Amino acid sequence: MGIAEKGTPRKRAPPGRRFWNGEDGSLSRGMAVQGGGQQDHARSQEPGLDQAHAPGQGKGRVQCPQGQGVLGEEPAVPQGEQLGKGEELERNLPNHVKRTLARNHVKFYTIDAVSIAQELGLGNRTNTVLQAAFFKLSGVLPVDEAVQYMKDAITHSYFKKGDKVLNMNYAAVDRGLQSVEEIRVPDSWKDLPDEPLEQTEAAGVPDYVRDVLIPVNAQAGDKIPVSKFLSFADGVTEVETSKYEKRGIAVDVPQWLPDNCIGCNQCSLVCPHAAIRPYLLDQDEAQNAPEGFTTVALKGGKNLPEGTRYAIQVSQFDCTSCGSCADVCPAGALDMQPTKLTDQARKLWDFGLTISDKDGAFDPYTVKGSQFKQPLLEFSGACAGCGETPYAKLLTQLFGDRVYWANATGCSQAWGSPFPGIPYTVNKRGFGPAWTNSLFENNAELSLGLFLGSVQQRAVEKARVEKLSRALTHGLEKPKADAGDTPDAAVMGAMKAACEDYLAAFDDFDASRKAADALMACAQASMGKLTNSAQEVCDEVLKFKDQLAKKTFWMFGGDGWAYDIGFGGLDHVVASGANVNVLVVDTEVYSNTGGQSSKATPAGAVAQFAASGKKTGKKDLGAILMSYDNVYVAQVAMGANYNQLVKVLKEAEEYEGPSVIIAYAPCTSHGLKCGMHDVQGEMKRAVESGYWSLYRYDPRKENPMTLDSKEPTMDYLDFVAGENRFASLTKSFPEEAERLFEQGKEDARRRFDHYRRMAQEQ
Predict the structure, then answer these.
(1) Which of 127, 250, 401, 730 matches a 20 to 30 Å C-alpha distance to 240?
(2) SS3 of 340, please?
């Protein structure tokens, strides 16, 4: 059941924007009851809100122009003017929704559950308000009886939390009954025409967006002709399309307070949806910035012209209102404020996308420097506050334009390819991750296959460059003008030097990119100035230029894949010694398929197939892989140590051999009492309690083990008490809970002591 956002007037003008189909996103929380009895959801058909879940397949690198999205604009309501609820719906509901309501004689009701919950101190927890409204309208139970059941359940669930919590929830029930308002559905809505789609065409969106994304998100995918999919028959589809959805679902968004900002960029690092980004502006860019694009003097940096400015910009249309950025800000520079989905807000975000990259200003392998790199994962289908996507986003910032990304089935596949809005994108050069999805069982083998194929392709390309170098040497040493030859000794010498520089940098990830770019530039400039034999080889090098720069290979997935179903394949690939990398986002449960217990689930946690708490301890995947002695292994938790995470990713990429990173990723299925906005804080508490340990095992070092965790300062039992997956066991099986929690505590302590002994060995 949904709600309407505008039942209680807010202290701001209602947004005046309109989606391509005329619908205002703030009204996505509508409630409709058909014929006064049977409940029906009159949910919005706006792009991005009700996404199709058909999984995408392999993703290619396809660059689309920076369009204006699928949004059109409508003049905002004048300052100070408030629309009545009926007027607002008349203004913003798309015509096809109005027709459905009128032709089916739907009784239409709204309730501002968001405002009610916030007013009562419940934050964004609207479920109790909405449940009360449901019982009032549905007729499933007599209202008085339903209310009694609800309040009895509240008492049972929350009596230990005191009267304040009980009374907030009792009040939520009462307000849910009192605040439902019926909206009159006029007969004139029956014959309204569809709004034209010229707005999308005027915005210059790609054909794929117009022909596929918009219809699918409008739940009209069955009307798309098969011909529109012929170009995707090979399994490769368009990327960077999620940016056109502009979901507009945030209730509150972060407002930047520049006077407080210290420029640490932690807000950008933890954002699950890449909806907040830092920028460096030169003087011209700062002067040409639109009104409202605030900048401040840059703190730190090098190799930048005088007058360089710093800015933080938020996409109000793409934010999910999780609040993670505001929670981690150490300086109080972000304040969550009501969303303003206006044309001006969009212009500010779009301007930020035009700001030039300032490479070299900060070390990209630092927290601050990494966030000035464009994220090549944006606006995914992940839950608000997701613990997985910040890891993936950071990976794309560090290596994303040359990543071969093999993604196991699971949450990361669901939010990574929620067709048709693909969140993986490309940089300004037109390069981005080459992403593909595989089953649980063989994702590791797929990644190994990609690696072996690329190794062979690059070896052939290296041989071509070596052949070119020999041809240039011969031409310089024994100049002989064949028919049609017009060699230029200086150009040939420069080309030969570029070949040698490239060959020297062949195995270096960063250096090979620069050397490859220099070689390509030199090759383009030398056209018509080489000997015929050298030119022939040079043309072959250019033909396969995408293989010049060194690639990096990452397999990505959850614990269900790495610990369980795909462990055999993972073990096989790691044992091969291949130079591949693994990032395991460990949610300690099968998050995507219903919350089933996995071998990563710790003792005492409640999950599907472990309703009375998991009886066995958590599998130590890292310790198993360390036994090979030639595998780089690390455990990370972003919120516990940002710097360690960046360091680990860099070390893993540099290591010439298999690397495995196990990343702690709190999930909505854990039932965090702190809320998903504090996922990063939960990571920190996990480490402080000894529940999760940070370490790096680097076989290159005399003593490979480095323990990055300190002695626990928080009680393990206090940590597990903050998550419903553990706390619920205390209610259902208190004696078993006590036993299993002590077992889990002992397991965690034993692992920490083991890691510490390894780190102390000389």
Answers:
(1) 250
(2) coil
CA 254 to chain centre: 17
Termini Cα distance of the chain: 62
* Beta carbons of 26 and 6 less than 8 angstroms apart: yes
- What stretch of H or E contains 443? helix 443-477
| Per-residue pLDDT, 16 | 26
Is residue 324 within 8 A of residue 272, CB to CB? The reply is: yes
Is domain 587-760 in CATH 3.40.50.970, yes or no? yes
Measured CA to CA, the distance from residue 709 to residue 703 in angstroms comes to 17
How far is CA 673 from its chain centroid? 23
- What residues form DSSP beta bridges with 445? none
Query: Can you give the three-state secondary structure of 158-212, one letter per residue?
Result: HHHHCHHHHHHHHHHHHHHHHCCEEECCCHHHHHCCCCCCHHHHHCCCCHHHHHH
Determine how β-strand 695-697 pairs with β-strand 632-636. Answer: antiparallel
Kindly state the tokens that stand for 170: 């009792």
Q: Is 27 within 8 Å of 248 (Cβ atoms)?
A: no
Q: Which one, of 601, 619, 748, 737, lies nearest residue 688 by Cα?
A: 748
Nearest to 743, CA basis, from 722, 717, 707, 725 = 717
What sign does the CA torsion over 530, 532, 534, 536 have?
positive
What local confidence, expressed as pLDDT, does residue 305 receive?
A: 84
Which tokens hold the place of 390?
């910040």
Residues 6+ apart with CB under 8 A from 625: 574, 631, 633, 660
| Contacts (Cβ under 8 Å, ≥6 apart) of 225 | none
Helices (H) and strands (E) in the chain, counts: 28, 19
DSSP 285-319: HHHTPPTT---EE--S-SS--TT-EEEEEE-TTT-
Q: Please state the separation of Cα 366 from the chain's center in Å.
A: 20
Cα angle value 701/571/508 (rounded, 5°): 45
pLDDT (tens digit, 9 = 90+) per residue, 495-552? 999 999 999 999 998 899 999 999 999 999 988 888 888 999 999 999 999 899 999 9
DSSP annotation of 592 reads T
Give the whole-angstrom CA distance, residue 419 versus residue 293.
33
CATH label, 250-369, candidates 3.30.70.20, 1.20.1260.10, 1.10.1530.10, 3.20.20.150: 3.30.70.20
**Pair type for strands 581-586 and 659-664:** parallel
Do the Cβ atoms of 31 and 137 come closer than 8 Å?
yes
> Residue 10 has what pLDDT?
29
Residues in the chain with pLDDT < 50? Answer: 1-82, 198-202
- CA-nearest of 691, 739, 747, 740 to 716 is 691
**Residues 6 or more apart in contact with residue 697 via CB below 8 angstroms:** 622, 626, 631, 632, 633, 634, 704, 705, 706, 758
**The pairing of beta strand 403-408 with beta strand 552-558:** parallel
- Cβ(306)–Cβ(213) below 8 Å: no
Task: Output b/e per residue, 624-656; b: 16+ Cβ within 10 A.
Answer: bbbeeeebbbbbbbbbbbbebbbbbbbbbbebe
Is the separation of the CB atoms in 418 and 51 below 8 Å? yes
Q: Give the integer Cα–Cα distance in Å for 397 and 393.
A: 6
β-strands 581-586, 334-338 pairing: unpaired
C-alpha span between 597 and 559 (Å, rounded): 10
Residues 544, 129: Cα–Cα separation, whole Å: 61
